[in-house]
């Protein structure tokens, strides 16, 4: 997506702010940027996202699952 299109999804944020975030994501290898004319097009790099999911985020999976089960139990008790 073009940077402007991405920024449009985050209306309260400024375009320069979105550009800074995209630059950081690009520097971290999470997104790739290619130029097409005057536009910069961004795309997600899947491998770093998998590493984040399977590494850092995996540590929270048990907590997340327990929280969802507890919520489900509370909601079902309301019936």
What does this protein structure show overall?
- By secondary structure, the protein is of the alpha+beta class.
- The protein folds into 2 domains: 44 residues, Winged helix-like DNA-binding domain superfamily/Winged helix DNA-binding domain (Arc Repressor Mutant, subunit A); 32 residues.
- Strands 1-2 form a two-stranded antiparallel ribbon.
- The longest helix has 18 residues.
- The protein is elongated.
- The chain starts with a helix and ends with a helix.
| Quaternary structure state of the chains depicted | single chain
Average predicted confidence as pLDDT? 91
How many domains, in number, for the residues? 2
Strand order of the largest sheet: 1-2
What is the helix content? 55-70%
C-alpha end-to-end distance: 45 Å
Identify low-pLDDT runs: none
- The CATH class label of the largest domain is Mainly Alpha
CATH topology of the largest domain: Arc Repressor Mutant, subunit A
SSE class: alpha+beta
Classified in CATH, the superfamily of the largest domain is Winged helix-like DNA-binding domain superfamily/Winged helix DNA-binding domain
- Main beta sheet: strand number and arrangement? 2 strands, antiparallel
CATH architecture level-2 label of the largest domain: Orthogonal Bundle
Strand content: 15-25%
Q: How many H/I helices?
A: 4
List how many beta strands DSSP finds: 2
**Any idea what the shape is?**
elongated
């Amino acid at each position: 997506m073009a940077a402007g299109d991405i920024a449009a999804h985050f209306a309260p944020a400024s375009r320069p702010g979105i550009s800074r975030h995209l630059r950081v994501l690009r520097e971290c290898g999470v997104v790739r940027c290619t130029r097409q004319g005057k536009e910069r097009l961004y795309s997600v790099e899947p491998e770093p996202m998998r590493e984040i999911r399977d590494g850092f985020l995996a540590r929270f999976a048990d907590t997340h699952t327990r929280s969802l089960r507890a919520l489900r139990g509370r909601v079902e008790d309301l019936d």
